[in-house]
């Protein structure tokens, strides 16, 4: 007698496959792909598979509501793609600069604090999701942001044309 699979069980099985395959992606990435700019002097760091997974999870939980796919929902003209990050003042195209931004965000021209508008550890009292994030967490989130263009190409931060 042949057993039929209900649509719910089929869906749950597919979700498990997708979830597990995405988790293993971090392990499958080679060191070259996981090499990310650390600071403005040109130093780099190789993210561990654990940092890659953790960064993705934390980004989705803490930042994904406004920055899904690297776009900025509150300003679709300014995303998290490498060009936009490098043209900011100060440039935010390395881990240390992004960690600094997540602690104390400033406007794109760097002239004004936007801590009351953008989640940060400085404004954790009004952005509860930031309260429990450690420096290691901010490092992993920053690594995720800088890794995504290597994985998704121009789709990361590409805006409405992709999402």
From TrEMBL:
Its cofactor is heme c. Binds 1 heme c group covalently per subunit. Residues 50-149 form the Cytochrome c domain. Its main location: membrane. It is a peripheral membrane protein. It holds the Pfam family Cytochrom_C550. PSII is composed of 1 copy each of membrane proteins PsbA, PsbB, PsbC, PsbD, PsbE, PsbF, PsbH, PsbI, PsbJ, PsbK, PsbL, PsbM, PsbT, PsbX, PsbY, PsbZ, Psb30/Ycf12, peripheral proteins PsbO, CyanoQ (PsbQ), PsbU, PsbV and a large number of cofactors. It forms dimeric complexes. Belongs to the cytochrome c family. PsbV subfamily. NCBIfam families: PS_II_C550. This is Photosystem II cytochrome c550. It comes from Cryptomonas curvata. The lineage of its organism: Eukaryota, Cryptophyceae, Cryptomonadales, Cryptomonadaceae, Cryptomonas.
């Amino acid at each position: 007698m042949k057993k039929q699979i209900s649509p719910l069980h089929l869906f749950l099985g597919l979700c498990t496959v997708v979830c597990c395959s995405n988790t293993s992606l971090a392990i499958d990435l080679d060191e070259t792909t996981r090499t990310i700019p650390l600071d403005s002097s040109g130093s780099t760091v190789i993210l561990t598979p654990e940092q890659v997974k953790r960064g993705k999870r934390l980004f989705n939980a803490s930042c994904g509501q406004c920055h899904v796919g690297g776009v900025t929902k509150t300003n679709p003209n300014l995303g998290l793609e490498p060009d936009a990050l490098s043209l900011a003042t100060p440039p935010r195209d390395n881990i240390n600069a992004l960690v600094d931004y997540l602690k104390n965000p400033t406007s794109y021209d760097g002239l004004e604090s936007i801590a009351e508008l953008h989640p940060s550890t400085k404004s954790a009292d009004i952005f509860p999701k930031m309260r429990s994030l450690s420096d290691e967490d901010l490092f992993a989130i920053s690594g995720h942001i800088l890794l995504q263009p290597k994985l998704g190409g121009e789709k990361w931060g590409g805006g409405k044309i992709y999402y």
